[in-house]
Amino acid sequence: MWYYYVGGIVVVLAILIFTVLAIRSKTPKKQPMDINAFTDILSKYNVMSIDFTRNKIVIKFDDIDIVDPNQLQEAGAKGISIVGDVIKFYIDGTPEDNRLLFEQLSKTIKRM
Q1: In Å, what is the CA distance from 6 to each residue of 3, 9, 11, 14, 17?
Q2: TM spans, by residue (predicted)?
Q3: Distance (Å, rounded) from C-alpha 5 to C-alpha 2?
């Protein structure tokens, strides 16, 4: 008689696992971040410094007037703010994604 209970529990667990896997497969996958798009855009400008503050990438330019924020937005930048010669933005994703982008941009800009 106990095997009916065990069989029922196994069936319920199988249905639960199948449902969770079906829901996960339908969730849209996050597009990978295109670091090259950001470096291509920012390499055109005279970057004075780059910093990472409160999950935002902060870049100071020699001449902010030549920076096109629309290009950054098309590359995936969010929350773009320009104050003086400084532009701040972040990307969708985790704080680690923003930190990774900052590190890659920092390495690339220092090579220029």
Answers
A1: 5, 5, 9, 12, 16
A2: 6-23
A3: 5
Per the structure, how many domains does the chain have? 1
| Domain encompassing residue 46 | 35-111
Residue 26, domain member (yes or no): no
pLDDT in tens, 9-33: 999 999 989 888 888 776 555 555 6
The Cα 67–Cα 86 span in angstroms is 10
Answer yes or no: pTM beyond 0.85.
no
Classify residue 84: in a domain, yes or no: yes
CATH number at residue 81: 3.30.1360.60
Domain assignment present for 85: yes
pLDDT of residue 42: 75
